[in-house]
Amino acid sequence: MPPAALAQGTAPAVPPSTTAPAGAAAPASPAARQPSAAQAAQQERMRSCNATATSRHLTADARRSFMSECLAGRTPAASGHEPSAAQAAQQERMRSCNTTATSRQLAGTARRSFMTECLAGHGASTD
């Protein structure tokens, strides 16, 4: 304490955090309880990756590896992942061939043969 404070009989101010009883927790402010947008996004990614790892029954090193990849964003989480470009192209080709086969009223072996040719890309999908 400075000599002037002793002479005047005043004690230095003590921060409020040190005046709380030893076992008492300081009340948290409402802003401290709400995660930031980045924290909320990370928590959601953790939930999603964890759910996917659980649904795939991954354990030990396989789970650890998957979680690392998933949290880094290199592996899509289960919910809402979009198909790759190749998958999307295949799905579109399937829709197109199916529509053409239906418009031609193909059934049974004729439809199966047409779909095989169409999906192989031999130009059979034109009407």
UniProtKB/TrEMBL annotation:
UniProt cross-references to InterPro entries, sorted A to Z: P_starv_induced_PsiF
Transmembrane segments: none
A Pfam family recorded for this sequence: PsiF_repeat
Compositional bias (Low complexity): 10-42
Polar residues: compositionally biased ranges: 96-105
Highest taxon above the source species: Bacteria
Region described as Disordered: 1-57, 73-105
Protein name, per record: Phosphate-starvation-inducible protein PsiF
The organism of origin for this protein: Roseococcus pinisoli
Lineage: Bacteria, Pseudomonadati, Pseudomonadota, Alphaproteobacteria, Acetobacterales
